[in-house]
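[Meeting: bench + compute handoff]

Bench side (C.D.) handed over the final construct sequence. Compute side (W.E.) agreed to return the predicted structure before the next meeting so the bench team could plan truncations. Sequence as handed over:
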Amino acid sequence: MPTYMRPAALALATALALTGCGAEVTRTADGKDTSRTADGHYPVTVENCGEKKTYDKAPQRVVTNDVGITEIMFALGLEDHMAGYVMPDDKGDLSAVPWKDAYGKTEWLSKDRITEELVLDARADLVFAGWNYGFSEGDAFTPAGLRRVGIDSYLLSESCRNGQGKARGVMSPLDALYTDLANLGKVFDVEDRAEALTESFRKQIAEAQTKAPKGSDRPRVFLYDDGRDKPLTSGVYAGPHDIITKAGGDHIMKDLKDSWTTVGWETVIDRDPEVIVINNYGDTTADRKRAFLLSYKPLANVSAIRNNRIVVLDYVDLVESPRNPAAVTSLAAELRKQAS
């Protein structure tokens, strides 16, 4: 069985499993499964960003925000439980991803920001987003606001606030991914799928680590997202930390107790990265980011710039998503090249 089953095969397998355990199968007018299993799976309670949340049934009209969050749902085969997704069209080519079919059958609700009006129009019963991944007090779009209009929410674990102002992160980035898979597996009664995905991801990362640089060969690595006056980068709680570390790099911002945040160029220069990873997304292309880094005079003596050791990874590789394990494999291969 491949790591990612096709949605049709997943649906068939689920239907057979339900029939075999004596489930009462019912569907809504638009064909969505509202089955309740005879083994009394519901209600279920999960802990999400420190809050206990109880679900009496699987949500049927989920709206997701951004590519990584959307693909977590797709990787679990839950596109039939979605009303649609919100995502800018700057997140790369989606035509060759394992979830191409799921993208094709799920409505792209907006290429702009997610709003309360949008999710109300979609008749959402749950919004899967995160702090700075859709939820923001500044935009007046928050879990508390949705609760007031009768819509539940699930927060991306990478984005959990940690009690220090608006700093984010309460666990390692890959643990955040595994936590969300486990929680959503319970919420949607697909625990077997969640466990299989997590097991396959752990195995993929372990295999990459066997070939990753070790000891004194581990290069110092800096993640450059964007920014001229101050670079936006990753702290210990954003995806790049685990991706860099598992791939055999020494993440130079590993002492930064936040997820995505800005630092000063002086700190970057002082820590002298030997490799820079560019986050590829948005209006500023990876080529333009590379050109800036190579031409920015304060960086001229930084090892990565002097030796032109710059690696590019896509946004969805670096935010919490089911593409993180493949990113570890890809970066490990690049770091081996840099070390040779």
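W.E. noted at the follow-up: Residues 131 and 159 are 5 Å apart (CA to CA). C.D. will use this when planning the next construct.
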